[in-house]
Amino acid sequence: MGPLSGVRVVEVASIGPGPFTAMLLADMGAEVVRVDRIPGSTERDQAQADPAVDVVNRGRRSVAVDLKHPDGVATVLRLVAEADVLLEGFRPGVMERLGLGPEPCLAVRPSLVYGRMTGWGQDGPLAAAPGHDINFIAVAGALAGIARPGEPPVPPLNLVGDIGGGGMLQAFGVVCALLEARGSGRGQVVDTAMVDGAALLMTMICALRAAGRWPGEPGTNLLDGGAPFYGTYETADGRYVGVGALEPRFYDALVRGIGLDPADLPAQHDRTQWSTTKERFAAVFRTRTDWCALLEGTDACLSPVLGIDEAADHPHTVARGTFTKAGGVLQPAPAPRLGRTPAAVAGPPPRPGEHTDEVLAAWRHTPDEVARLRRVGAVA
Secondary structure of the chain: what % helix, strand, coil (to 5)? Predict the structure, then answer.
């Protein structure tokens, strides 16, 4: 039913942003086959999450292949020959050493979109270096701005590098390349680097800096908690509310809503008085617990700061179906919403190799070929 129905994707199993890309494509209707390592007793296998709750792997089938076995590599190339997209998340050069780099894959499928996910990209001085989300967003200039005055930067979970600047950006690049391939008949490599993506997410901040609207140190600016009308405040019960009253009429509604007189406060955008105004706001918010009942949904732009379980029970997310339970596991529902070809969770996360036989059969392998691959240990 999804807009990507009919698109076939081979996902060479990785961690973090790569599976998130594959999940987005699967939610939108693509047929995604995950090529997993043959399960074993290695430390890495033991450290992996329970497949049943690893919901980022939802919506696809799994084949287990030994990529160090020549017949395993040949099996993947046969899958690629039937695919529209290949996704991989190894360091530069690994897929080439396995015999599954862009050249042999595009040779068997000239229209293939070959998606490559790395932290540093396929070239540059750090291309071969290890790293994680925090490293990529640090070099991209994003992490430095997520801090309170005089305090160290705070890692924003792994949302900026892995997810936003990585998995989501790669999904966008892959779909762009798919659209182009439909006209040209030619595939191409999509080189997604999380350092590039994290930098791209900073575009609006760069614009504010250029306009002179982001002049201060981290934690003293418009959107980083420096402004009294854009930040979080503790309430009497130790919980928090978030306020985002940026526009003048929203600011006026916030000030009046918490019982203050705008005439008794400095001008909204008088940066020299922001710290004083924040202190006044903080003192007021600490006097009550019912701010959400009073102001949520009004022009004051105030919302409760919720944990995931609470967010799933909020009346607005319940009404929209923002969260869902699939396989008994709470998880975000597919997004965005498409009116005519809606996205959907196509199924639970697979166990590694759960669908080896059925996938190979559906992708032009005979029963005798599958039996031989099993016998020599190329698949499991």
Answer: 40, 15, 45
For 235-375, where are the E strands, in sequence order?
Answer: 240-244, 302-304, 323-326, 329-332
List 54, 71, 132, 252, catalytic entry? 132
**Contact yes or no for 295/232 (Cβ under 8 A):** no
With cut-offs at 50, 70 and 90, classify the pLDDT of residue 47: low
- For 261-289, letters b (16+ CB in 10 Å) and e give eeeebeebeeeeebeebbebbeeebeeee
How is residue 233 written in tokens?
A: 């405040």
User: What is the pLDDT, as a whole number, of residue 39?
Assistant: 84
pLDDT above 90: percentage of residues in the chain? 95
Is 234 within 8 Å of 240 (Cβ atoms)? yes
Query: Quick one: residue 364, left, alpha or beta (phi over 0 = left, psi -120 to 50 = alpha)?
Result: left
Which of 27, 84, 133, 162 is flagged as catalytic? Answer: 162
**Is residue 220 very low, low, confident or very high in pLDDT (cuts 50, 70, 90)?**
very high
Q: The whole model's pTM is what?
A: 0.95
What span, in angstroms and rounded, lies between the C-alpha atoms of 272 and 1?
A: 55
Q: State the pLDDT at residue 44.
A: 56
pLDDT tens digits, 106-138: 999 999 999 999 999 999 999 999 999 999 999
- Concerning whether 309 is annotated as a catalytic residue, the answer is no
- Which of left, alpha, beta for 153 (phi over 0: left; psi -120 to 50: alpha)? beta
Q: Is 290 a catalytic site residue? A: no
